[in-house]
Write a structure and sequence with these properties.
Layout lengths: L24 H13 L9 H13 L3 E5 L2 H12 L6 E4 L9 H5 L3 E4 L11 H7 L4 E7 L8 H11 L2 E5 L7 E2 L2 E2 L6 E5 L12 E5 L2 H10 L25 H11 L2 H19 L5 E2 L7 E2 L4 E6 L1 H4 L3 H10 L5 E2 L10 H4 L28 H9 L1 E4 L6 H21 L7
Parallel strand pairs: 2-3, 2-4, 4-5, 5-8
Antiparallel strand pairs: 1-9, 6-7, 6-11, 8-9, 10-12, 12-14, 13-14
The structure holds pyridoxal-5'-phosphate.
């Protein structure tokens, strides 16, 4: 049996895996244009407008509204639907807190539905169970770059007359039954933060086909300031300044032109790894349902503990020692167990909106609320992946996972004295 690097054996991979992003001459050219123009604010500039137009074209939708982050992009969608305070919004418990911040900032109550074990998408049955007379929207998170059961979620939302919003922050150009993630619900929201498939450091964009919602979304990202006309500087309602700058827009514009290629390269690498991992007994790569296409923000997999008799943490540590950075859990616990939600640390000492008399209900988030999500966070192992991974890199990852899995599988067959 090959000695593991963690036990002093040779490392499978000695060179670091590629970690750079596809940023270079194209972004520089756009940035230089902006600098020479002297126009850094989007109002009066050309780059953010061009980015919005090209992003909308890429997704085949009518409207794209740029903003300053993925958190802002989700907030823009909520600002557009304009929920009454203390409305409930159902979402998933595994995400960045940026999925939930906008719910709280709209004085709404996040309600967590569990996820399905295969895709990690929202479990439609649990969503349906959690709908009340206060529910206004479902925010579906396409975790790691894969959509869940969007057909059923769309049907449920339509039947109950509530909005479906897609958090595509990790799922640029992911596909579901021939449709692009972000074009299935009423809104698609994307992060352009450094680690995302395309990036401008920090940034966001919200897409929709609904003209009325788009008008309000645009205003919401710009202090509800109608530009031009009789009502110029009208400040029509409470809204944010989420305007993307021309500098961000310049990079985002160059990036959107590369998006298809970047995602195709990530997909080639991720799908190749999935195919290879299927050969390893006790290792379970992501299950991509027929008709779906993953866009691999991170690469998640699990192990069968019955077969490998090792805890995921130990497996991840052994894999990291082989030169393949691996960790368990993505976030360490479901969102509802983080202090901000568990202890309802919101506005001053008020606990609003949870304690708002207008709500009149009591929400307590507890361990056990979403058993699948809690289980997955203890089991899932993630490794980084990006558009620069070559076949050789993928083969090294496969060899390392194979070596670690073989070790633990066979270790358990050794006599006790060995
Ligand atoms: C699923 C998801 N939603 C929302 C966000 C928030 O995006 P940002 O960090 O750009 O605000 C992220 C980013 O990490 C994310 O991964």
């Amino acid at each position: 049996m090959e000695e593991l690097a963690i036990n002093g054996g040779p490392k499978t991979r000695t060179r670091p895996l590629p970690s750079r992003r596809d940023i270079g001459a194209e972004e520089l050219k756009e940035i230089i244009d902006v600098i020479w123009s002297g126009q850094l604010n989007r109002v009066g500039g050309t780059k953010v407008i061009a980015f919005e137009r090209e992003f909308a074209n890429l997704y085949g939708v009518k409207h794209a509204i740029a903003s300053t982050s993925g958190t802002a992009a989700i907030h823009v969608a909520f600002g557009a639907i304009n929920p009454e305070p203390c409305s409930e919004i159902i979402t998933g418990p595994i995400s960045d807190i940026g999925s939930v911040i906008p719910i709280l900032y709209q004085n709404c109550i996040p309600i967590f539905a569990d996820i399905e074990l295969g895709t990690y998408g929202l479990d439609p049955d649990d969503v349906e169970r959690k709908i009340t007379d206060r529910t206004v929207a479902v925010l579906a998170i396409h975790l790691f770059g894969l959509c869940g059961d969007m057909d059923r979620l769309s049907k449920i939302c339509k039947e109950h007359g509530i909005y479906l919003i897609e958090d595509c922050s990790q799922a640029h150009l992911a596909e579901y039954k021939g449709r692009l993630a972000g074009t299935i619900g009423d809104f698609g929201c994307f992060s352009l933060q450094q680690s995302k498939q395309i990036t401008c450091g920090d940034g966001g964009v919200t897409i929709t086909n609904n003209d009325e919602l788009a008008d309000r979304a645009r205003l919401f990202a710009d202090k509800a300031w109608p530009r031009g006309g009789a009502d110029d500087r009208g400040y029509l309602f409470l809204a944010m300044n989420y305007r993307m700058t021309e500098l961000q827009g310049a990079v985002a514009l160059a990036q959107v032109r590369k998006a298809k290629d970047i995602v195709a390269r990530r997909r080639r690498a991720g799908d190749m790894l999935t195919k290879l991992l299927k050969e390893i007994e006790g290792v379970k790569p992501p299950e991509v349902p027929p008709g779906s296409a993953h866009s691999y923000w991170l690469y998640p997999f699990t192990i069968d503990r019955e077969v490998l008799k090792v805890r995921p943490e130990e497996f991840a540590r052994a894999l990291s020692a082989e030169g393949i950075p691996a960790s368990v859990g993505y976030i360490k616990k479901p969102l509802y167990l983080f202090k901000v939600l568990k202890e309802q640390v919101t506005y001053g000492s008020s606990h609003c909106p949870f304690d708002c008399p207008r709500y009149g209900r009591k929400i307590e988030y507890r361990e056990g609320d979403c058993p699948n999500a809690e289980r997955i966070l203890k089991e899932i192992i993630t490794i980084p992946i990006n558009e620069f991974y070559t076949e050789e890199d993928i083969n090294d990852i496969f060899r390392a996972i194979s070596k670690v899995a073989n070790y633990y599988r066979n270790r358990n067959l050794q006599p006790c004295s060995s």
